[in-house]
């Protein structure tokens, strides 16, 4: 409506914004609280102001009192319409509304996550590469380096793990889990909140999609593509029970829990070593695989969280 009264100076606009009641905008003089917002306009300022006197006072405070003040035809109608908008603007501001709620997401609430009690001491953020259903690499550069993050409190099927459908048919549940996490993230940035690293220097974190605000740890368990890592946290146990009830993901058939699968794999490996002599490696220090590895962290995922 500003186009309907083009000669209004910025003093008029500020005056309108200073008004706190609809009555003031419709012509009724207002007192004390609204007037106090104008500031020390004069030593003998009146206790009440009309819209016109308030506008003049505001212009005076800005050093623009010499500029003509003209109320065009229809200006009062425009002011009434502006007054009807004030409560809406105030309500929107109080709710923190923004055009893109996902993009405006701040630090997510840690309630219901493994970090609820401890909080987070650092943040890792960027576009991830999905290694498997519970491992990502953030900000992977051309050199293949990046921050390896293990989703805290959950355990997903390993990359080569095989599960069974209800009818007994086998499928690659590890690959399915990886694809589900990729689907949840897409090309979005993720923000991972963490308070520690594991023995392999992987960040142990609760990760969120920056655009949508989705808790990726929770979502993977909700979808049945990961299970609660109850040895270290029961934060997602209810989500696991919900997924099991609706037979989502791995719960639609039979599967070995990821830690059981890794245990059996280690036992098979040890049995093989006992029958076949394998030269010992010189460097036995625990190391994480390179960030550009195309396999999951099978042997690393049993590291204490």
UniProtKB/TrEMBL annotation:
Keywords: Signal
SUPFAM superfamilies reported for this sequence: Staphylococcal nuclease
Location of the region described as Disordered in the Swiss-Prot/TrEMBL record: 265-305
Positions of the TNase-like domain: 127-253
One Pfam match: SNase
SMART domains: SNc
Chain intervals with Acidic residues compositional bias: 294-305
Region forming the signal peptide: 1-24
InterPro entries according to UniProt: SNase_OB-fold_sf, Staphylococal_nuclease_OB-fold
Record's protein name: TNase-like domain-containing protein
Phylogenetic placement of the source organism: Eukaryota, Cryptophyceae, Cryptomonadales, Hemiselmidaceae, Hemiselmis
């Amino acid at each position: 409506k500003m186009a309907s009264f083009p000669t209004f100076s910025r003093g008029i606009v500020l005056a309108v914004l200073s008004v706190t009641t609809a009555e003031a905008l419709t012509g009724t003089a207002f007192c004390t609280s609204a007037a106090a917002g104008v500031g020390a306009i004069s030593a003998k300022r009146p206790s009440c102001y009309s819209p016109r006197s308030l506008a003049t006072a505001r212009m005076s405070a800005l050093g623009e009192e010499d500029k003509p003040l003209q109320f065009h035809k229809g200006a009062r109608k425009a002011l009434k319409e502006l007054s009807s908008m004030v409560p809406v603007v105030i309500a929107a501001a109080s709710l923190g509304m923004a055009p893109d709620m996902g993009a405006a997401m701040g630090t997510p609430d840690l309630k219901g996550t493994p970090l609820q009690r401890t909080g987070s001491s650092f943040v890792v953020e960027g576009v991830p590469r999905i290694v498997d259903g519970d491992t990502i690499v953030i900000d992977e550069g051309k050199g293949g380096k990046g921050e390896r993050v293990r989703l805290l409190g959950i355990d997903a099927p390993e990359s080569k793990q095989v599960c069974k459908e209800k009818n007994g048919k086998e499928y690659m549940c590890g690959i399915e889990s990886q694809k589900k996490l990729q689907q949840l993230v897409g090309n979005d940035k993720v923000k991972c909140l963490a308070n520690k690293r594991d023995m392999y220097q992987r960040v142990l974190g609760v990760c969120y999609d920056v655009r949508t605000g989705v808790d990726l740890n929770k979502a993977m368990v909700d979808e049945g593509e990961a299970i609660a890592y109850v040895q270290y946290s029961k934060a997602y146990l209810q989500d696991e029970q919900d997924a099991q009830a609706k037979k989502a993901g791995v719960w639609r058939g039979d599967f070995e829990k990821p830690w059981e699968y890794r245990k059996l794999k280690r036992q098979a490996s040890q049995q093989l070593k006992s029958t076949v002599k394998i030269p010992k490696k010189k460097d036995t220090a625990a190391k994480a695989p390179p960030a550009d590895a195309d396999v999951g962290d099978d042997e690393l995922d049993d590291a204490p969280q």
